[in-house]
Amino acid sequence: MRATILNCTLKPSPEPSNTDALAEIVAAGLRDLGTDVRSIRLVDHDIKPGVSSDMGDGDEWPRIREEILRSEILIMASPTWVGHPSSIAQRAIERMDAMLSETGEDGTPVAYNRVAGVVVTGNEDGAHHVISEINGALGDIGFTIPGQAWVYWNMGPGPGPSYTDTDHGHQYVHQVAGLMAKNLYAVAAALREHPIPAEISRGED
Fold it and tell me: Which residues cross the membrane (predicted)?
C-alpha cells in the first residue's frame, strides 16, 4: 500500500511546519500498517495555476500527479487561514479537477478506487469548514472518503500557540489521527480487493 501526503503549508522548507507535524502522526499510523508513505510540501514546487494536468514548461505538477496516481491513499494537509484552506490547497484541488475527465485503460476515472482524507491545523476556528471543503472537492473528483478520515487541531478563536508550541489537545488528536490511519487503510484495502467496476463508473446498465 502507498500513500501520498500533500502538505499545503505556506512555509517553504526547511521552515518547521505544524501541518507537517500533525500529518506525520497519521503517516506513522499508516506505516505501522505497512504503508509506504511519501509527503510532498507543495510550496517547494512550481505548480502553475490552471485546471489541466500539465501546464507546460516548468510546471512540476505532472510529477506530483504521478505520485498521487501511484498511491491508493491521498491525504491533503492544510492550515486554516481566515476560516478557509490555504491557497496552496486550493491550487492543488484546481489542478486535480482535470482528473474528472481522465480515465484508465478500462475507462475507469483515475481517482476511482483510491481513498482520501484531510489533516487541518490552525490556531483559529474553521477546521470543520476546511475539512468539508476539501473532502467535498475530493469526492467530486472521484476519491472515496472513508468515515472519520480526518483529524484537526486548533486552539479555538483568536490568537494563541501553534500545534508544536503546546501539548494542548494532543492526546485526543493523536487518538483521532490513529483512527484516521486505520480507516483509510481499511477502505483502501477493501477497494483493492473489490474495485469499483468500470461499467459502474461509466454509468452503464
Answer: none
Distance CA 134, CA 74 (A): 12
Among candidates 164, 134, 181, 179, which has minimal Cα distance to 26?
Answer: 181
Number of neighbouring beta carbons within 10 Å of residue 24: 19
pLDDT in tens, 62-97: 999 999 999 999 999 999 988 899 999 999 999 999
Nearest one of 113, 110, 93 to 101, comparing CA atoms: 110
Q: Are 141 and 100 in contact (CB under 8 A)?
A: yes
> CB under 8 Å, gap of 24 or more: what pairs does 89-95 form?
89/6, 89/8, 89/134, 91/42, 91/47, 91/49, 92/6, 92/8, 92/42, 92/47, 93/134, 93/137, 93/138, 93/141, 94/49, 94/50, 94/51, 95/47, 95/50, 95/51, 95/52, 95/53, 95/61, 95/65
